[in-house]
């Protein structure tokens, strides 16, 4: 379960 | 702005289109191939007979999945991360409050992505079949009746109206990309110190959108039409927030325990925030 901060700071998350 | 060169606009338009395609969740061809797969009547009835809170939870999960792709889109737009997020989060938040409390005070950075749901609604026109008034949801194409058990028929019908309306503009992928970026930049950043920088980037994106529309030989007035949609999008999102608070007042424990943290961070500024990272 992700949080916004994790999403923002992670290098790459969701791409096709 | 006279200071923006054509080469710069072209570069920005390419960056945004590329970011959109890399993060669009579903390819348009995939979606179009599936339009014949509408939910069967018995499947529709099964959604309708779900308890309200179960359907709300399912929709919150689907919205959150879509938003994760929008966040990735935002991160890839030239200039977005530099605006405030990473710099501001680390400079303002971390040293002063420590990492844990920074995560708790979600308001620091959630403003930047407050319009991510608006972008989800814009992207929805790719997954919308205007002929049957259905949208891709949970593996098949769904009409408004699928969402009946949510108990917000007015919001659902406004969302479908918006989808149909945006579809009628027949936007190309690069137009959707640029318009999404424009919508994202219209976020209300009341706390942001560098407001001027954001406005400058938004102006540049608007010029890049105009450039793309001209390049695609779109009729005059389409830019104005698109810009007018921003207030419709904001109204839809406000309505969603109202519906969510009404739902939460009835089912506080469901929201607290079962809704995705990201969804709660974005749509309930008064919700308890996500747990701090160790």
Characterize this entry briefly.
The complex is a heterodimer of chains A (16) and B (278). Chain A has 16 residues and is mainly alpha-helical.
Task: Kindly list the characteristics that best describe this protein.
A: 16 residues, mainly alpha, 1 helix, 0% strand, B: 278 residues, 13 helices
State the share of residues found in helices of chain A, binned by percent: 25-40%
Instruction: Outline the low-pLDDT stretches of chain A.
Output: none
Structural class of chain B: mainly alpha
Give the averaged pLDDT of chain A, no decimals: 74
Envelope shape of chain A: flat
Poorly predicted ranges of chain B: 86-108, 271-278
Inertia-based shape of chain B: globular
Protein structure class of chain A = mainly alpha
Secondary-structure element order of chain B, N to C? HHHHHHHEEEHHHHHH
Helical segment tally of chain B?
A: 13
Question: How many angstroms separate the termini of chain A?
Answer: 19 Å
Whole-Å distance between the termini of chain B? 46 Å
Approximately how much beta-strand content do the residues of chain B carry?
under 5%
**Could you spell the SSE succession of chain A in H and E letters?**
H
Instruction: Please give the number of β-strands of chain B.
Output: 3
Using only C-alpha atoms, the radius of gyration of chain A works out to: 8 Å
The helicity of chain B comes to 55-70%
Please provide the count of β strands of chain A: 0
Describe the main β-sheet of chain A briefly.
none
Characterization of this structure:
The complex is a heterodimer of chains A (16) and B (278). Chain A has 1 helix and no strands. With 16 residues, chain A is mainly alpha-helical. Chain A is 38% helix and 0% strand. In chain B, 67% of the residues lie in helices and 3% in strands. Chain B has helices spanning 6-22, 28-33, 41-48, 52-76, 80-104, 107-110, 116-124, 153-167, 173-185, 195-215, 222-250, 252-258, 261-267; strands spanning 128-129, 134-137, 140-142. The relative contact order of chain B is 0.16. The A-B interface holds A 1-9, 12-16 and B 21-25, 27, 68-69, 71-72, 75, 81, 85-86, 89, 102-103, 106, 109-110, 113, 260-262, 265-266, 274, 277.
């Amino acid at each position: 379960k992700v949080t916004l901060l994790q999403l923002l700071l992670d290098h790459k998350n969701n791409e096709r | 702005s006279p200071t923006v060169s054509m080469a710069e606009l072209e570069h920005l338009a390419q960056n945004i289109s590329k970011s959109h395609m890399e993060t669009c969740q579903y390819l348009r061809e995939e979606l179009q191939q599936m339009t014949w797969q509408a939910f069967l009547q018995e499947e529709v009835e099964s959604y309708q007979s779900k308890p309200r809170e179960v359907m709300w939870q399912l929709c919150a999960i689907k919205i959150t999945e879509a938003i994760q792709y929008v966040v990735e889109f935002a991160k890839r737009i030239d200039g977005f991360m530099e605006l405030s997020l990473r710099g501001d989060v680390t400079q303002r938040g971390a040293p002063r409050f420590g990492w844990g409390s920074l995560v708790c005070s979600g308001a620091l950075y959630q403003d930047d992505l407050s319009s991510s749901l608006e972008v989800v609604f814009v992207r929805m026109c790719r997954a919308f079949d205007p002929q049957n008034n259905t949208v891709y949801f949970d593996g098949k194409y769904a009409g408004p009746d699928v969402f009946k058990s949510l108990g917000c028929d007015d919001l659902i019908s406004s969302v479908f109206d918006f989808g149909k309306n945006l579809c009628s503009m027949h936007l190309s992928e690069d137009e959707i990309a640029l318009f999404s970026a424009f919508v994202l930049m219209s976020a209300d950043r009341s706390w942001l110190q560098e407001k001027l920088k954001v406005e400058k980037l938004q102006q540049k994106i608007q010029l890049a959108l105009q450039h793309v529309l001209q390049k695609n030989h779109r009729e005059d007035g389409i830019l104005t039409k698109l810009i007018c949609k921003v207030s419709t999008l904001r109204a839809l999102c406000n309505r969603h927030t109202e519906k969510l608070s009404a739902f939460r007042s009835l089912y506080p424990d469901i929201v607290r325990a079962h809704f995705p943290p990201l969804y709660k961070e974005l749509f309930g500024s008064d919700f308890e925030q996500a747990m701090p990272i160790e």
